[in-house]
Automatic annotation (TrEMBL), chain A:
Entry protein name: SCO2523 family variant P-loop protein
NCBIfam families in alphabetical order: SCO2523_fam
Domain of life of the organism encoding this protein: Bacteria
InterPro entries attached to this UniProt entry: P-loop_NTPase (IPR027417)
């Protein structure tokens, strides 16, 4: 299955959340890969702690593959090549976890040629043979990478795909996420242009809220009653706004709580970070774990 | 003499194995006359030979710039209606002239690449054998893999493969026997990223049967590699019996019956297979894995019967 991760704005937590989902899915026993299609700022290597490709690879990554300069993009076995000691051994029963990094100094494309599209179709077809889940991290907004993903999936009727739209839990982000899907030149309109059926495509899109601070979170314990009441009211208004914009509970696949570790550093959260060093919150890992299951759970994707 | 090739092997993207007639259909997507098939001892279908013209650099261990012009010979095949292979090879020859000739010259010698200037066979052979990261050199694997892609994209396949599996790459190099060395020589090496290399020393020179042999070896290496992954993932002894059996089931349904080393090969190749059976011992490892799979399934069946109160 192909899963496309997109967001209207940069800095929403799309890459960090996607990486953690991929990691959780691998721990759950699936063969997974992560494709960095954020050609302008390929940072996935840093999140997976593979320092040799922290800012993209110099050995021929996604960008050069699409340019047709290489036949096989650089692939990295994360279990073997991560710098984080605690991740280095693949636990028994866990699946493969492979990163296809972007190129250092790659840059966004300014057009999608037919050749690029064919390369994309070929790549997806091959990866689908090998991996249960291929997560494609697109850049923010209406990019050529997103156009290419829509066009390629329209040509691959046998390959299941899903879209995750990441947004933060604020007024502007809710409206922006709605616009990215429903707006002019949004995903649905562009998808229909590329030959998708609009309704079917809409059923394959879900939202993910990132870095959410619940009004009843432990972090807010010390607040005054008036502050709590105010936060509750804000949250109620946001929920109402989200519902009106079609970004509400029914079209949401999951939400990830604000986590202190992720606030400070883009990284995978391991069980060790929760259990032994206790720097990360158990709720965060539970949310990643849940999302990793729901991505492939058909009942979470029934038509709305 | 120097012949080099690469075989890529993967699972045909269909829920079940496909019958011979469908093999004809999917391989018929490649241009050419007709698909050849044989039925015994296992259904095997192979596409017509495909020619790809190339004018490019060849990898060399010394990193010397070696230019080659000619054609790559490729084909795709399906074994047991289940395993797909894309195979390409070239014979390297010294160019007679010092400049490129018209394509008709090269087309008349299918599968021959002519190299300019003086080259040493071991330099090219070693260069090709570990040409993994060389992006600007002739990549025989990619040439063959394109034909696999065409087959996998066939509308006759449902794309619902019973399990995920990676394609393997077997890179092979065959040279003539040197005076003073006895008999056929063979060396098989497992590399990183599912790359394997095979070195052959042939007393009787190159015949197309050599390609069959390499494809047969690649097929069995893929079977073994794939079964090893399935068994590892099943977490025998840790996961519940039902989980283990569910993970092993695809192997029983789709792989176990395909093991038939050297079944389609000329008797001349028996010694080469025998050498591989001694070391690394393909069939020994395969049989022990198969026994493990069967035992697990049997134990689970017994447990189910007992639960059902039958015992
Ligand atoms: N759940 C979270 N809690 C706190 N901070 C987060 C969370 N998720 C992401 N972040 C932080 O937000 C920032 C942006 O995340 P990133 O994944 O790089 O965004 P994007 O890929 O959308 O541009 C990073 O510093 C990241 O660590
Ligand atoms: Mg990012």
């Amino acid at each position: 299955m192909l899963v496309f991760a997109i967001s209207d704005k940069g800095g929403t937590g799309r890459s960090v959340t996607s990486s953690n989902i991929v990691y959780r899915r691998a721990l759950q026993g699936s063969d997974v890969c992560y494709l960095d299609f954020d050609f302008g700022s390929p940072t996935a290597g840093a999140i997976f702690s593979v320092s040799s490709v922290a800012r993209g690879t110099t050995q021929g990554g996604m960008h050069r593959y699409f340019e047709g300069r290489i036949a096989d993009p650089h692939r990295i076995d994360i279990w073997a090549e991560t710098d984080r000691e605690g991740l280095r051994a693949k636990p028994p029963g866990a699946g493969q976890m492979v990163l296809f990094p972007g190129d250092e100094g790659g840059g966004e494309f300014s057009t999608v040629s037919e050749e690029m599209l064919l390369r994309c179709v070929r790549l997806f077809t091959r990866l689908e043979e090998e991996f249960d889940l291929c997560l494609v991290d697109l850049s923010a907004g209406r990019s050529f990478a997103a156009q290419m993903a829509l066009a390629a999936t329209a040509r691959l009727p046998g390959v299941p795909f899903r879209w995750l739209v990441f947004h933060r839990w604020t007024r502007q982000h809710i409206i922006a996420a709605h616009g990215l899907v429903q707006g002019r030149q949004g995903l649905l309109a562009a998808g229909v242009d590329h030959g998708h059926d609009g309704e079917t495509l809409a059923d394959h899109i879900r939202f993910v809220r990132t870095a959410v601070l619940e009004p009843d979170a432990a972090e807010l314990e010390g607040l005054r009653e008036t502050q709590k009441a105010w936060l509750n009211e804000c949250d109620r208004e946001l929920r109402e706004l989200a519902r009106r914009y079609g970004v509400g509970r029914t079209s949401m696949l999951g939400k990830i709580p604000l986590d202190p570790v992720l606030q400070w550093r883009e990284q995978l959260i391991s069980d060790e970070d929760v259990l032994s060093s206790q720097i990360a919150n158990a709720e965060t890992v539970a949310a990643f774990d849940d999302l990793a299951k729901k991505i492939v759970d058909d009942s979470a994707w029934e038509a709305l | 003499m120097l012949v080099m090739g690469e075989v890529r092997t993967g699972l045909l993207q269909n829920s079940g194995e496909i019958p011979e007639s469908l093999c004809q259909g999917v391989l018929g997507l490649l241009s050419g006359e007709r698909v050849r098939t044989s039925r015994r001892p296992i259904v095997y279908a192979v596409s017509p030979d495909q020619l790809t013209g190339v004018d490019c650099r060849l990898a060399s261990a010394s990193r010397a710039r070696v230019r080659g012009v000619g054609t790559v010979l490729s084909r795709a095949s399906v074994t047991g209606g289940r395993v797909l292979q894309g195979s390409s090879h070239i014979q390297v020859a010294r160019a007679e002239s010092d400049h490129r000739l018209s394509w008709s010259h090269y087309l008349a010698r299918p599968g021959v690449i002519e190299v300019f200037g003086k080259v040493r066979v071991p330099d090219l052979a070693d260069g090709f054998a570990d040409s993994g990261g060389w992006n600007d050199c002739l990549d025989l694997g990619s040439v063959g893999e394109r034909f696999m892609d065409v087959v996998q994209a066939s509308p006759l396949l449902d794309r619902k493969a019973p399990f995920r599996s990676a394609r393997t790459r077997l890179r092979w190099v065959a040279v003539a026997e040197e005076p003073g060395r006895e008999g056929p020589g063979i060396r098989f090496t497992l590399g990183r990223d599912r790359v394997r290399t095979l070195r052959l020393v042939l007393p009787d020179g190159f015949t197309p049967d050599v390609v069959d042999f390499c494809e047969d070896l690649a097929l069995h290496d893929w079977l073994l590699t794939t079964l090893l992954v399935i068994v590892e993932r099943a977490r025998v002894g840790t996961a519940t019996r039902a989980e283990v059996t569910a993970k092993l089931a695809p192997a029983v349904d789709h792989l176990l019956h395909l093991w038939m080393p050297a079944a389609r090969l000329d008797d001349d190749f028996a010694p080469l297979w025998e050498a591989l059976e001694r070391r690394p011992g393909f069939t020994r490892q395969w049989q022990s894995l198969v026994a493990r799979v069967r035992d697990q399934v049997a134990i689970n069946t017994l447990a189910l019967l007992r639960e059902a109160g039958g015992w």
